[in-house]
What we know:
The protein is mostly helical. It is 82% helix and 0% strand. Helix 1 runs antiparallel to helix 5 and helix 1 (2-37) runs parallel beside helix 6 (176-200).
Amino acid sequence: MAINESWNRDRHTIRLLLSICPVGGTLGFIAVLMSYMARTRPWEQPAHPPLASSIMLGIPGFMAGVLVSAIIARFESAEWIRPRAFRIWCLWGLAYGISLPLMTGALMPIFDPIIRLIFGAIGFMDFLSDMLDSIFRMPWTIFIQGTIGLPSGLLMGIIFAIGSWLLDVLNSIYGEKSRAISPYFVSILFSLIILSTYYLIPVKWILRLGWGSG
Length: 214
């Protein structure tokens, strides 16, 4: 019985991790772009960054969102199989919103030399030197991104709470077939809806939501 219960808890944890992380990653991707656009000066024309720039800017945010989501899902499902109350997920959403810009700030300086190494812009020895420099710059980028990215992070935290609560419910409903399919389908659908909404709403709305000057 104990082995059975442990196996069920492990499966619950894995399903929750795999379903929540794409949502958290997508929100992290969008949060970075929002905080970037919020820096638009009053005399500049606000616009979405080009696709290549968006990807380069957004990948650290995506990775940060996945990491924060994984930590939350792991803690949340460690000793609990039944779905948690919505108010609990609201608290986790607040934790996500605060942690996301800090984690993004930690990953940003590390990501830059990795990309330059991949594209052959620097050699391996320069890469090691830049990585060391990135580690020393990390406290500063954590502070900067943690401050600038907090408004968009908190907004993403609200969406994260709603999505995670829904996925937690789907992950805990009776019926093995439903639990095996529903959370992943809803996770991908929810992520696509969030991403599409971000690119469809007016840019000025994005600036206001990110506390920009639009």
